[in-house]
Fold this sequence. Notes:
Two copies of one chain form a homodimer.
Chain A: E1 2-3, H1 11-18, E2 25-26, E3 28-34, E4 39-45, E5 49-53, E6 56-62, H2 69-78, E7 80-85, H3 91-96, H4 107-111, E8 115-116, E9 125-126, E10 132-143, E11 148-160, E12 180-182, E13 186-195
Antiparallel strand pairs in A: 2-12, 3-4, 3-7, 5-6, 6-11, 7-10, 8-9, 10-11, 12-13
Amino acid sequence: MEKIEFEKMDQRTRACFINCLSGFKSANLIGTRSNKFQTTNLSIISSCFHLGAQPALMGMIFRPHSTDRHTLEYILETGYFTLNHVTAEIFEAAHQTSARYPREVSEFQATGLNEEYRDGFLAPFVRESKISLAMKFREHQLLTINQTELVIAEIQSVYAPTECLSEDGSLDLSKANSICVSGLDSYFETKPLARLSYAKPESKPKRI
Amino acid sequence: MEKIEFEKMDQRTRACFINCLSGFKSANLIGTRSNKFQTTNLSIISSCFHLGAQPALMGMIFRPHSTDRHTLEYILETGYFTLNHVTAEIFEAAHQTSARYPREVSEFQATGLNEEYRDGFLAPFVRESKISLAMKFREHQLLTINQTELVIAEIQSVYAPTECLSEDGSLDLSKANSICVSGLDSYFETKPLARLSYAKPESKPKRI
Lengths: 208, 208
């Protein structure tokens, strides 16, 4: 193990390096719809994070002036979007949604992923995803420290394979083929190590 | 795939379920030190996320009144802390740091993980981690939507195995044995699928 002198890296190398340091990240596809422009958009995002269970909230970060601009614009226009877990079967198509397509090209058509509408929800789901969420925009704010946007949204509905759901509420993401991502472009499957019991000072955790 | 009626779940089941929905999460150990109480603290956290590369920033979420209270208190007291990737070798000890130990018990001693001090940095590193970061507190704010605290900190130094670092800045987390977590208690190893080239509208992504 050595100290890595990232201050000396050029801008692109540094961005690639720093992006790896938080650890593995979730890989989701955001599906949005614009009534104004009569189009849909699909965009991979690795910055979704759990914010709370009651209310059921998720946070996500949008970079300023990024390729995500259509996504954020349509979320703010309609107030709704979907989150769809990227699986090992579709990670290449999911990655391709990060290309800078013009507004009139939907990434659904461009990548071959299929739009699906469920239960009257406004935004399109990704048919190929095994775990999908209907999300309602709650608030956003500019983080002035680096001009990124924090978006907070509430989980309205969840679609998932019931065989991945345990009685205690745990959802087996590995069984649902969800994958994770590191940095800008490295995709990983997962292999379960263990579930551990609730930690208490007087005992060691047990495998459950 | 079915619609999962989480509104009907009891509070604990719901917390477990909702916590899985963002996807796989990073697993880090936060090392802190208190001068005031002459003690150290070590706490597992799954809510660290990449915020930006220039400046090199990370965000993390602290629940209100959680077992993390010593950690946040000591970060605010000293302004410094470490982040240490959880590996497959230490995930059980890492999980055990979430037990509610009294202030006078350091989770380092309680779990057998080893404190290490590097290059004059105030907060303790975890010797067993392969990737460790020296962090400087920048700002925090209460997210009023659910009373969680968002902490933003800057990466000051990075320690990592040089054999995991590519020339383009990518750090192979899988090779460094970093693991990921789902929900409250499920730990996973990873297996590389592929790195993909920068996506462009006119071509398909290549494996690199």
